[in-house]
Amino acid sequence: MHAWPASEVPALPGQGRDLRIHDTATDGPVTLDPGPVARIYVCGITPYDATHMGHAATYNAFDLVQRVWLDTKRQVHYVQNVTDVDDPLLERATRDGVDWADLAVQETTLFREDMTALRMLPPQHYIGAVEAIPGIVPLVERLRELGAAYDLDGDIYFSVDADPHFGQVSNLDAAAMRVLSAERGGDPDRPGKKNPLDPMLWLAAREGEPSWDGGTLGRGRPGWHIECVAIALDHLGMTFDVQGGGSDLAFPHHEMGASHAQVLTGEFPMAKAYVHAGMVGLDGEKMSKSKGNLVFVSALRRDGVDPAAIRLALHSRHYRSDWEWTDQVLQDAVDRLGRWRAAVSRPDGPSADALVDEVREALANDLDAPAALAAVDRWAARQEAEGGTDIGAPGLVSRTVDALLGVAL
């Protein structure tokens, strides 16, 4: 599966700072010091309705991670999956009377178009669950050999008790985990499971649903968590730098995936930092497909909204915060974009050397994009009020905003 085209990232004078970011597992800041190649895995979409502002906010956060690393003169090895076969996708296809595979292709194509318009940097490896099945089957077989998996009426489950580190990503108690498991795709009440929290590794073939040859596993399809584990281990290995996604993935998805990988490899941890973006709401509720309260990037683009303004709207809220999408949030971003473009359109202006440092420091400090926007706002206000004589300043501001915030002025 192919990703989307990359926009050019301008080089800035000097060098960026190492990233300090909040780690869910330790519930505190960690300073990441990758080697020459920083490794990041971000969980992708289930392509049955793409791309709403919750998606956009999540991928915006991890685009900033990449840009901070690139500014430190590192390379970035970025991997993202597409869960192109799963219950929600099959249910939507049945509801709409379309082929599930066609729906997945349609929505994945739209997602690529939205990411391109928003100038999100693409992953080097963009892998669908279906194409990952040949790599998933041996992992499930290995977990069975290790005694960490068991059969239940033809389905195969992972035993969370096999991992002594289980629970150390989300740090939730068993009662909270059970509630979230039921809400987020698990089946804690299924009779016969060794532990109510045990997740599915391989779903035996059901009539009328797609299935694949699983060798000794029988025909079926993979569970959600093992999909990402197979892709991450194949392309990044263990102890990569950042595992990323929305905050609703901390449990069960990232918790279960970490346990799968740790049992398979005997190594700990799967990732050096587990980083989670907040939820975006609308009308007082989390924006989600199940609630039907979605604001789509593609709809805004069709209405003529500049994608640069959408990105500025996303930057205006800290990535870890839960926040509300409103017309005013978007209007403020449109106004800000206009002020910035007017400021950099002049032939000269006040020096921007300090601005570059301010934006770098803000983003290195747990991706504080609102502080970065405020720094550019101050330069634009000085430009409007006083002007300046530095003929290189407007260009430097434009390059800084492009390189570090992904916004073309």
TrEMBL record:
Q: Where is this motif: 'HIGH' region?
A: 45-55
Q: Which InterPro entries does the UniProt record give?
A: Cys-tRNA/MSH_ligase, Mycothiol_ligase_MshC, Rossmann-like_a/b/a_fold, tRNA-synt_1_cat_dom
Q: What is the lineage of its organism?
A: Bacteria, Bacillati, Actinomycetota, Actinomycetes, Kitasatosporales
Q: Where is this region: Disordered?
A: 1-28
Q: Which cofactor does it need?
A: Zn(2+)
The UniProt entry, under NCBIfam families, shows: mycothiol_MshC (TIGR03447)
Q: Where is the tRNA synthetases class I catalytic domain?
A: 39-334
* EC numbers on record: 6.3.1.13
One GO BP annotation is:
cysteinyl-tRNA aminoacylation
What are the GO cellular component annotations?
Answer: cytosol
Record's superkingdom? Bacteria
Q: What positions does the record give for the motif labelled 'ERGGDP' region?
A: 183-188
| Keywords attached to this entry | ATP-binding, Ligase, Metal-binding, Nucleotide-binding, Zinc
Q: What is the stated purpose of this protein?
A: Catalyzes the ATP-dependent condensation of GlcN-Ins and L-cysteine to form L-Cys-GlcN-Ins.
Q: Where is this motif: 'KMSKS' region?
A: 286-290
For this entry, the protein name equals: L-cysteine:1D-myo-inositol 2-amino-2-deoxy-alpha-D-glucopyranoside ligase
Q: How does it assemble?
A: Monomer.
Q: Is RNA-binding tagged as a keyword?
A: no
Detail which positions bind Zn(2+). Answer: C43, C228, H253
Task: Report the co-factor binding details.
Answer: Binds 1 zinc ion per subunit.
The record's GO molecular-function terms, alphabetically, read: ATP binding; cysteine-glucosaminylinositol ligase activity; cysteine-tRNA ligase activity; zinc ion binding
Q: Which family does it belong to?
A: Belongs to the class-I aminoacyl-tRNA synthetase family. MshC subfamily.
Q: Any keyword Nucleotide-binding?
A: yes
Q: Which reaction does it catalyse?
A: 1D-myo-inositol 2-amino-2-deoxy-alpha-D-glucopyranoside + L-cysteine + ATP = 1D-myo-inositol 2-(L-cysteinylamino)-2-deoxy-alpha-D-glucopyranoside + AMP + diphosphate + H(+)
Q: Where along this sequence does the record place binding of L-cysteinyl-5'-AMP?
A: C43, G44, I45, T46, T58, N81, V82, T83, W224, G246, S247, D248, V280
The residue stretches assigned to a coiled coil in this entry are none
